[in-house]
Design a protein that fits this description.
Blueprint lengths: L2 E7 L5 H18 L3 E5 L7 H5 L5 E6 L6 H14 L5 E4 L8 H12 L8 E5 L6 H13 L4 E5 H9 L15 E4 L6 H12 L13 H11 L4
Helix pairs in contact: 1-8, 4-8, 6-7
């Protein structure tokens, strides 16, 4: 039976997130020739349970998660069960994290915003209080990003932007050239990061990773394409 691809995203009260995920689904369908549906862990619909009732055949789930946080560890097994409730055979692909193509997507966003990717850039992740998301992003950038990039979370961003004096163990010896919200799409977290950075007179590399060529290729790989 035919394979249906499901892009399983977090969900957001901001409609821009849903629009970006849906646009990604349309691009992926065009490239693969397969039907591509969207489901959301929170807020947006359809939920895995709602969509799973419609699906038969092979259901290839691509978790649209870019940090190894709570959802990747806890919610994905439950979502897989729900997506198979209509009789579909669920195959769970790897999450997007921690693939180095995420770094390539960040470089595209910076280029698009006129920011030199080799300069001082602070990437800001969301994530739960357990710190897994922050550690995952830090490890990704340490392995695959320029040495001038630093990482933090929204909760810890303000001290990073304020500290300046190397004599007191500052995180950055000078203000960054830009702050980049490490998100798939514009939304609540993206805007909060932007407001805080701008309040410190630091430019923001606006826009999410979806829509970059790097993310198109990464999602294609998760679906099983060679490119």
């Amino acid at each position: 039976m035919r394979t249906t691809v499901v892009l399983l995203a977090h969900g957001s009260p901001d409609p821009r997130h849903r629009q970006a995920v849906q646009a990604q689904a349309e691009r992926t369908a065009t490239v693969t020739g397969l039907p591509v549906r969207c489901a959301y862990l929170e807020t947006d619909t359809p939920s895995p349970e709602q969509l799973g009732a419609e699906l038969t055949g092979t259901v290839l789930v691509v978790p649209m998660l870019i940090t190894p946080a709570y959802h990747a560890r806890v919610d994905l097994p439950r979502a897989a069960d729900l997506l198979g409730r209509g009789g579909g055979r669920v195959v769970m692909a790897e999450s997007l994290a921690p693939d180095p193509m995420l770094v390539a997507g960040c470089v595209e966003v910076l280029d698009r915003c006129g920011v030199d990717p080799s300069g001082r850039v602070v990437l800001v992740a969301g994530g739960s209080s357990d710190g897994v998301a922050a550690r995952g992003l830090a490890a990704l950038v340490a392995r695959h990003g320029p040495p001038t990039w630093r990482t933090t979370t929204l909760a810890d961003l303000d001290p990073v932007l304020l500290e300046r004096d190397p004599a007191v163990g500052t995180y950055l010896p000078e203000p960054p050239a830009a702050v980049l919200p490490f998100v798939l799409a514009e939304g609540v977290l993206h805007d909060r990061v932007g407001r805080l950075a701008r309040s410190r007179h630091i430019p923001v590399a606006a826009g999410g990773l979806l829509g970059t060529a790097a993310l198109d290729r990464l999602i294609g790989r998760r679906v099983g394409l060679s490119n």
